[in-house]
Amino acid sequence: MKRCAWAEGKGDLYLAYHDLEWGVPVYDDQKLFEFVVLESAQAGLSWQTILNKRDGYKKAFKNFDPKKVAKMTAAEQSKLLLDPGIVRNRLKIASTISNAQAFLAIQKEFGSFATYLWSWVDNTPVQGKRKGMSDIPAVTPLATALAKDLKKHGFKFLGPTVCYAFMQAVGVVNDHTTDCLRHKEVSKLK
Question: Which domain covers residue 170, as residue numbers?
Fold first, then answer.
């Protein structure tokens, strides 16, 4: 079975992520917040690092509940700097909390974060026709516009590159290569 080249040879955790999650449209706000946290944590690092620490992030950031994360105290932030289960970067930890606050503000304004996010693509996933890894861009004009708007709403560590990775992860964009076993399956999901 052929998969996207980025998923090959990286172990069972990576393959499961590719085969079961990546590119599948997500409409659940808590799951979307999870990916906001993980993708922003990944900035400048490998996805393998973050995937290996996913359970640590889930524990550290209260099962990815944005309401609970938004209320985290300075003492809790300091404690997280000692937690080997996450990337111990002061700015990324602080931005996770401020991103939770911004996430909640978007929920309040739009009814849900999913409503806000999916409005960028008229509620229909963008279907990439990527033949190979070299065809997949790091950034698109849509990701740049979304990142700019998220920044305006107070988000940090979600620039255009990270934003595009987020869009791919949560299925706003289907960038499985056309020869990948998941491309056709994911393209049928709405």
Answer: 18-187
